[in-house]
Amino acid sequence: MSLHVEVTGSGADVVLLHGWAMHGGVWGPWLDGFARHARLHVVDLPGHGHSSWTEAVRDLPGFASAVGPAVPHGAILLGWSLGGMVALELARRQPHGVAALILVATTPKFVVGDGWQHGLHRDVFDGFARDLAADDRRTVQNFLALQARGDERSQEALRLLRRGVAAHDAADPQALAAGLSILRKADLRADLPQIAQPSLVIAGDRDRLTPPDAGRMLAE
Asked: N or C: which end of the chain has fewer CB within 10 A?
């Protein structure tokens, strides 16, 4: 598998990990500002953007193993949603290799379950999974719309998301299915106490996919 990474800027190493169905280009509006303060390693997750896909990458440990070689020792990880889960897994694996975490719209458990009400309801999530098999492009567009729905400037936010995603070819359908499977099954709550790196959790107070209470619980 070939993992695509773009490196720009100078300073401390910061690795950027995007969310499901996206690619490194979605950070575009902020990269120039970030690059004045840090050396950015902008990763396309397996099967997304310019990175190829392999069946060996089918779960969260597989995604972390694929991304690990692109993470310099002592780097800060900036993860968004699925990318945040990958960042948490890498921090758990490399307690001395990862310096800090910045987690945006990230949750230890994406779907509502036993003892966890701070996620997407299972019937809504299962609907995405069914729709993905029938029409992956439309499903991605619907997922983007759900992310933007709580924003007071939702139409502008959705245009930015769609423009960013459209900048590269669509993600591999197998990668999309694997990413949804991770979001459905992964439960990192028991692993959080093992993660001792300084961490900044950023949550949107109107986020419909990763509610702010999920961010509060993650930070605690």
From this structure: C
pLDDT of residue 117: 93
The DSSP element (H or E) to which 191 belongs, if any, is: none
- How deeply is 186 buried, as exposed, middle or buried, from its count of CB atoms within 10 A (0-12, 13-18, 19+)? buried
Question: Given a cut of 90, is residue 215 above it in pLDDT?
Answer: yes
Alpha carbon distance 123, 99 (integer Å)? 38
Phi-psi category of residue 105: left, alpha or beta, with phi > 0 → left and psi -120 to 50 → alpha:
left
Q: How many CB atoms lie within 10 A of CB 216?
A: 12
Q: Distance between alpha carbon 198 and the CA centroid of its chain, in Å?
A: 19
Q: Which residue in 59, 91, 80, 74 sits closest to 12, CA to CA? A: 74
Residues 140, 141, 142, 147: is their CA dihedral positive or negative? positive
Give me the phi and psi of 118, to 5 degrees please.
-100, 45
Q: Is the pLDDT of residue 148 over 60?
A: no
Is the CB of residue 162 less than 8 Å from the CB of residue 34?
no
